[in-house]
Amino acid sequence: MLAGKGFEKIYNLSGGIKAWDKEVAVGSEDTGLHLFDRVLSGEEAITIGFGLEMGLRDFYLAMQKRVVREATKALFSKLADIEILHQEQLVQLYGEITGTQLSVADFAEKIAEPAMEGGLTTEEYLQLYKTDLDSESEVLSLAMAIEAQALDLYLRAAEKSTEAGSERVLRRIAAEERSHIARLSHYIDHQQDLI
C-alpha cells in the first residue's frame, strides 16, 4: 500500500509506535493553535502559513551565524533558501484562491510578524532538541522535527477550523509540509541537493 503511494523505502517498526524514536510533534494539544484562532478564510490561513515560513527562514539564518563549521553554515543557508520556495508555493496558492498575483516580497508586506513554524520559539526548539549546531546530521534532524511539528499544527488547525475554505487550505498546506519532510528525508538518505 505504501509503495503504491510513492514511498521507496518502507521499514517495519518492531515494537510498534512505542518503539518509535524519530521525529514527532511535541507539546500540548493546543501548542501553536493560537496562531489560527481568528482564521476565517483560506486567504488568512495562507497569510499565517507564510508568516511561519518567514519565521523559520529567519531561524535558519540566525542559526547560521551561531555555527563555526563552513559545511554547517552552508547547510543552514540551504535550509533558509528552501523556505523561500515554500513561501513561493503559498503565494501561488493565494493567487489560485483569490485570483490576485503577488510577488513574494509584496506578499511579505502583508505579514505583521513572522512566527516559528510549528508554534514554538527558536529557544524552545533549541532547548527541546538540544541540537549540536555544528553537526550536519543533527541540524537535519532538527529541520525534520520542525517540519513534523508544522505538519501536526496545520492538521490540528484544520481539524479545529469551522470554515470549509480555511480547512481545505490548511489541509493543502499540511500536504506541502509532508512533501517538505519527504524532501529532507530523501536528502538525508541520498545526500543529494535539497532544492
Descriptors:
195 residues, mainly alpha, Ferritin, 0% strand, globular
Please describe what this structure looks like.
With 195 residues, this protein is mainly α. It has one domain (38-190): Ferritin (Up-down Bundle). 61% of the residues lie in helices and 0% in strands. The protein has 6 helices and no strands. Helix 1 (42-66) packs parallel to helix 6 (164-190). The longest helix has 29 residues, at 70-98.
Number of separate helices = 6
Distance between the termini: 28 Å
Number of domains: 1
Query: So what's the CATH class?
Result: Mainly Alpha
Just name the CATH architecture: Up-down Bundle
- Rough shape? globular
What is the number of E strands?
0
Largest sheet: none
Low-pLDDT residue spans: 16-20
Strand portion = under 5%
| SSE order, one letter for each helix or strand | HHHHHH
Helix content: 55-70%
| Structural class computed from helices and strand pairing | mainly alpha
What does the secondary structure layout of this molecule look like, with pairings?
Layout: H1 42-66, H2 70-98, H3 104-108, H4 122-129, H5 136-160, H6 164-190
Helix pairs in contact: 1-2, 1-6, 2-5, 5-6
